[in-house]
Specification:
755 residues, five-stranded antiparallel beta sheet, 25 helices, Homeodomain-like_sf
């Protein structure tokens, strides 16, 4: 193997130095981080304990405030107060013992709230020695001696509380023996509420264990709550523990005594002091263990990193040396390395050589494809920077172009649908086969997914081309169930440079195709026919009939236009544009009418069937089915029984001749005008003024066609007080003035036609 001398600036030395520098940098960073961590860990522990204590104290304070508010509300409850007065009167006949049932229900609702952490609430009436709690009513002496028993919370203790000045008190927690459905012991914190002049007191029993677990957690340091009078309200080590005064500096909330950190938080609102204690010995022990662990890990990490740096540097350097030696001495030596990237480089270099040879061979076989591309570029007038095969394309030979436009059926309803790309490929193969013998120099190209172009070189032999296309027509007509073909033939061009002009000519002639189920041949340009659209009156009639669900009348209008287009020999594209326009108008009406989702989805799916329309009968069948489905859906929507809508239409039919307004109709229907307008718009898809105008214009048409009344009198009779407004609204609705409409009605009546 060829070797290179090791130098100071070699990859091995540079990579090894870089790795060692990174190790040194990380080592120094870890050392400084460890020193900083050791210095600040005690401070962080203190801060974390202060935050934890303050969070727990805030939770206790908020909870005590909530409980206090709830107890005062119960204390001043009218039933609680009135029942206490009845008991204080000491007249058994005047006491309504049904009142406590509501009090018990109220207490149970509060007790059942799991977030209040209350075991029970007592309403104690001292004058009658009577209690009400979640379990019902009973004698106070029996309650506190048998059911909720704890020292020193006896009946005498609770009686002495009436002589205390404080309105609320939070008392030290004690272990209570509770007898209800079963016997259990619980740590409870009593809380009392009383007011001067009232003969009763509220006693709430807070579950000390649940409060501690929810607000502080069982795994934390020792936790104590001390009242300002020195009594211990709660101690996590157990009830009855005496509090130890902790002297603190004026500006501090923690201190270190007897190798223990004490943290305190004072509440001015409740006069409570919250305190936690963390032994310093446990903190120091943890820090020492952490120091030893970090030092060991640091030493091991540096040793492993140094060894890995040497090994990895050698693994990187060895294949690089082989590659350099191979390039320097031009040796075809295969590089051996366990590193994936070096193997990949070696494989890629050999693969590139192999691909170069394959590409060269492939280019030789792709001359035909390049030629096709050249023809397409010339036909579409695409710019190209390649001149290698230009001479094979630009030949001054006379030619014709035949463009085959395939109108492929969507095949949604066919049992065995054919794929469009396969149909186009089969058509191209058939054209090549038919053109091969009579026109050996012809070439067929696929310009689009459904468009083929055949370039026929040679003298102008139109008769031969006609016979060839006739034979193709016989073949394509056998597959008319899958597609229809339009074959547009260009003029004869003596110069080969006119490819683009000939292509644009065939495109224009293909656009002039008529409706025909089968192959259609177009040799000459056809005179442009006018556009086919509904008149304003016909469009208004279409909308009116659709909104009323009159499918037959709409179909009659559309079929009349289709037959007119057939007489005028409209183009295939004009039929498609007209049908799409009608479908869009119908969908607009159904959308406004808010038809049911099923027919709406059916109409949406039916639009795709336009792709299968190739004859006049196809368009008639499609539009008839489309309009009937839409009209029936609209009619079903209109026929839905809605008393408000029915009354609204009936009222318009009876009073259209009056000076109606939205406010007057709404007042008649005992609704607000805003609500009525929105309701009618939502249910019918049309606003109030359009409904009123439709009724009036319909009545006007009947009078114009069937009476000799003047236009002014007709306008006044249907509710228009100004003949100018009547004429403007009539023309907007029907597209004609009242006078022109009357003349047209008279002419069509004389001709026996229905208007």
């Amino acid at each position: 193997m060829l070797k290179l001398p090791l130098k100071v600036n070699s990859l091995l030395v540079k990579s090894l130095i870089s790795f060692l520098a990174i190790i040194a940098l990380l080592a120094s960073f870890n050392f400084l981080s460890f020193a900083f961590f050791k210095t600040n860990i005690e401070r962080e522990i203190i801060q974390n304990n202060r935050v934890a204590l303050k969070t727990a104290a805030d939770r206790y304070e908020k909870h005590i405030s909530i409980i206090k508010t709830m107890l005062f509300k119960l204390y001043q409850n009218e039933q609680v107060v009135s029942f206490g007065r009845q008991l204080a009167a000491k007249d058994p006949g005047a006491v309504n013992y049904l009142k406590p049932a509501d009090i018990v229900e109220s207490i149970r609702r509060d007790i059942n709230n799991p977030f209040l952490y209350m075991d029970n609430v007592f309403v104690y009436y001292a004058a009658a020695s009577f209690t009400v709690d979640k379990n019902g009513t009973g004698d106070a002496a029996r309650t506190f001696s048998q059911f909720y028993v704890s020292e020193p919370y006896t009946l005498g203790f609770w009686n002495r509380q009436f002589s205390q000045a404080a309105t609320t008190q939070l008392l030290p927690n004690r272990l209570f023996s509770i007898v209800s459905s079963d016997k259990q012991n619980k740590q409870l914190i009593p809380m009392t509420v009383k007011l001067p002049g009232y003969p009763h007191m509220i006693i709430s029993m807070l579950d000390a264990g649940q409060l501690y677990e929810s607000f502080y957690g069982n795994n934390g340091p020792a936790f104590t709550i001390v009242h300002s009078n020195g009594s211990v309200i709660f101690d996590s080590s157990g009830p009855g523990t005496a509090s130890k005064p902790i002297p603190l500096a004026e500006d501090q909330d923690y201190t270190l005594q007897d190798n223990t950190y004490y943290f305190t938080y004072d509440s001015e609102e409740t006069n409570l002091t919250y305190m936690t204690s963390v032994p310093y010995s446990s903190i120091a022990s943890q820090i020492r263990k952490l120091e030893v662990t970090l030092l060991v890990l640091f030493a091991v990490s540096v040793a492993i990193a140094a060894a890995a740096s040497v090994v990895f540097s050698r693994k990187i350097n060895a294949p690089v040396k082989q590659i350099i030696a191979s390039l320097r001495f031009r040796s075809p030596e295969v590089v051996s390395s366990s590193i994936y990237e070096f193997k990949l480089i070696n494989e890629i270099s050999r693969e590139l050589i192999r691909e170069r040879n394959e590409i060269h061979e492939d280019l030789q076989s792709k001359t035909s494809l390049l030629t096709d591309f050249g023809y397409i570029s010339k036909l579409k007038k695409l710019a190209s920077g390649s001149n290698e095969w230009k001479d094979t394309i630009v030949q001054n030979r006379p030619f014709r172009i035949v463009l085959f436009q395939l109108h492929i059926r969507t095949s949604r309803h066919q049992a065995m649908p054919a794929k469009p790309d396969r149909l186009t490929y089969a058509a191209r193969e058939c054209i090549d086969l038919m053109f091969a013998e009579p026109f050996p120099n012809s070439r067929t190209l696929q310009m689009e997914s459904n468009q083929l172009v055949s370039v026929v070189f040679g003298d102008d032999r139109r008769d031969l081309l006609e016979r060839t296309l006739a034979a193709l027509k016989a073949i394509f007509d056998q597959d008319s169930g899958h597609y229809a073909v339009t074959a547009a033939v260009s003029s004869f061009y003596p110069e080969g440079s006119d490819f683009n002009l000939a292509y644009r000519e065939t495109l224009e002639r293909a656009r002039q195709a008529r409706l025909q189920d089968g192959m259609q041949l177009i040799w000459d340009d056809v005179r442009e026919v006018h556009h086919f659209v509904f008149t304003a009156q016909e469009e208004q009639e279409l909308y009116s009939h659709l909104q009323e669900g009159g499918g037959a009348a709409c179909v009659q209008l559309v079929v009349r236009m289709l037959e007119h287009m057939a007489r005028k020999e409209a183009f295939r594209g004009q039929y498609r544009t007209f049908a799409q326009g009608v479908a869009a108008k119908v969908l607009k009406v159904t959308d406004k009418a808010k038809i049911e989702p099923e027919p709406a989805g059916q109409l949406s799916d039916m639009v795709a069937d336009l792709e299968d329309c190739f004859t006049l009968d196809d368009y008639k069948r499609f539009l008839e089915k489309f309009i009937v489905v839409a009209a029936e859906a609209v009619k079903r929507r209109r026929d839905e029984k809605d008393p408000v809508v029915e009354f609204f239409f009936a009222y318009l039919e009876e009073h259209y001749s009056e000076d109606l307004s939205l406010d007057s109709v709404a007042d008649r229907m005992n609704m607000s005008s805003t609500y009525l307008s929105a309701y009618i718009k939502e249910k019918t898809g049309t606003n109030f003024s359009d409904h009123l105008n439709n009724v009036r214009i319909r009545q006007a048409k009947e009078m114009l066609a069937g009476t000799n009344m003047s236009i002014r009198d007709i306008g006044e009779k249907i509710g228009y007080r100004n003949d100018t407004s009547f004429i403007r609204m009539f023309k907007k609705s029907s597209g004609l003035t009242p006078g022109d409409y009357r003349k047209r009605a008279a002419l069509e009546g004389n001709a026996g036609l229905q208007l």
